[in-house]
Amino acid sequence: MSGDSDCTRTSPSAGSASDSELLPDRPKYVCTLSPDLVTKAREELQEKPEWRLRDVQALRDMVCKDYPSLGTCLDDAFLLRFLRARKFDYDRALQLLVNYHTCRRTWPEVFSNLKPSAIKPVLESGFVTVLPHRDPQGRHVVCIRPDRWTPSNYPITENIRAIYLTLEKLIQSEETQVNGIVILADYKGVSLSKASHFGPFVAKKVIGILQDGFPIRIKAVNIINEPRIFKGIFAIIKPFLKEKIANRFFLHGCDLNSLHQNIPPMILPEEYGGTAGKLDISAWNELLLASEEDFLHDFSELVLPCDSSPHDLLVSGDADEKQCDDSLRGMKPQLYYCY
Fold first, then answer.
1. Considering only CA atoms, which of 191, 199, 251 is closest in space to residue 224?
2. Strand ranges (E), the chain
3. CA triplet 163, 166, 179: central angle to 5 degrees?
4. pLDDT above 90: residue 16
5. How far apart are CA 242 and CA 245, in angstroms?
6. Nearest residue to 272 via CA among 285, 259, 253
7. Which of 2, 67, 317, 334 has CA 20 to 30 A from 138's CA?
8. Residue 339 and residue 63: Cα distance in Å, rounded?
9. Half-sphere exposure for 245 (CA within 13 Å, toward CB)
C-alpha cells in the first residue's frame, strides 16, 4: 500500500504504457475477484475489467496534476480501493483520496504512531473484533462493544485507532472492497458518563472518516442492547450522517430475533443468540498484531500539498471544534433526559 508519490517521476499526462516503462518497480495488479464478484462489481460499482487499468491510470493522472505533493501511494491496487468506493466516479474517488490523507493530518491523537502494538490494550479488552465468518452477502461483521472500555485506562481516541486499523486490514481484501462490511454494535451497559466522551466534535470526526475519508462500503449498522441513553447519542450522531447511511442504522434493542433478520444466527456467537460458538477475539487480535510490519511500511508520513483549498479539507480546524463544543453543551440536557 505504501510508497512515495511517483508524480515527480512521470508526467501526469503519461499513458499507461509509457508509465509502466518509466516505473517498472510498481507492483503489477492481479485481480483476485471470483467470477461472481467480477459480475457484482460490474453491476453495482460500474467496474469494467477491460477498462479497469485505464480508470486507475486516469485517477493517477488526476492526482499527479492536481495534488503532486500528496505523498500518496499510486499503485494500481491501492487506487482501486478509492475507485470502487465511489463507483468509478473519478472526481469523487479523487476527493475521497484527498480526504483520506487529510484525516490523518488533522487528527494527530489518532494517527500518530498508528500501529497494532500501540493499541494492544484495546484489542485485548475486546472493544472491537471481527467475527470469523462472513454473512451470506460475503461481508465481514465488525463487532464493537463499548462496555469493554474503561475510560480511566485510556482515552476514547485509542478505541478509534483500533477501529481504524481494523478497517485498514479488512480493506486490503478485494472481496471486502466489493461487498462492503456490516457493523454490529452492542451498547449493553453504556452509562451516561461513558457516553459523554463521545461528544459532537469526536462524532463529527469519526463519521467524517467513515463517510468521506475511508474507502470502505458500510452496508449496515446493527445496534443491539441500546439503553435509553442511546437516544441522546444518536441525536449527536444523526446531524452528521448522510441520509443514505442513516437509513442503514437498525436499532434492535434486546430483540435478538430482530437482529437475526439482518445477521443470520449461523455466523453469530452464542452471546447474540447465534450458533457459531463463544465470541473469540484472539484470532482477529493475532491477525492484526501479525500485520505490524505491514502497517509500519504502509503508514509513512503523509503530507498534503501546501496549497490545499479549505474546501478540500474534511475538518476545518478550530472553528469546527468551537462549534462542536457549543453543540455539546446543547446536547447534554438530551443525554440526561434520555438517561
1. 251
2. 128-130, 140-144, 181-186, 218-224, 249-251
3. 110
4. no
5. 5
6. 259
7. 2
8. 48
9. 17
Phi first, then psi, for residue 289 (nearest 5°) are -65, -30
Q: Are 6 and 23 in contact (CB under 8 A)?
A: yes
Per-residue pLDDT reduced to its tens digit, 137-187: 999 999 999 999 999 999 999 999 999 999 999 999 999 999 999 999 999
Please give the mean pLDDT across all residues of the chain.
84
Contact (Cβ atoms closer than 8 angstroms) between residue 97 and residue 66: no
Residues in Cβ contact with 246 at an 8 Å cutoff, skipping those fewer than 6 apart:
238
Name the range with the highest mean pLDDT among 11-20, 216-225, 291-300: 216-225
Residue 275, classified by CB atoms within 10 Å of its CB into exposed (0-12), middle (13-18) or buried (19+), is: exposed
**DSSP E strand stretches across 43-175:** 128-130, 140-144
128-130 sheet: strands from edge to edge: 128-130, 140-144, 181-186, 218-224, 249-251
Sole residue written with cell 476545518: 316
Are 88 and 21 in contact, with CB atoms under 8 Å apart? no
DSSP line for 147-179: GG--TTTS-HHHHHHHHHHHHHHHTTSHHHHHH
Beta carbons of 73 and 1 less than 8 angstroms apart:
yes
Mean pLDDT in residue range 66-86: 95
Task: Tell me the whole-structure pTM to 2 decimals.
Answer: 0.84
Q: Which residues pair with 249 in a beta bridge?
A: 221
Q: What are phi and psi of 219, to 5 degrees?
A: -90, -25
- Interval 95-127: pLDDT, tens: 999 999 999 989 999 999 999 999 999 999 999
Across residues 309-316, what is the average pLDDT?
41
Q: Which residues contact 24 (CB under 8 A, 6 or more apart)?
A: none
SS3 61: helix
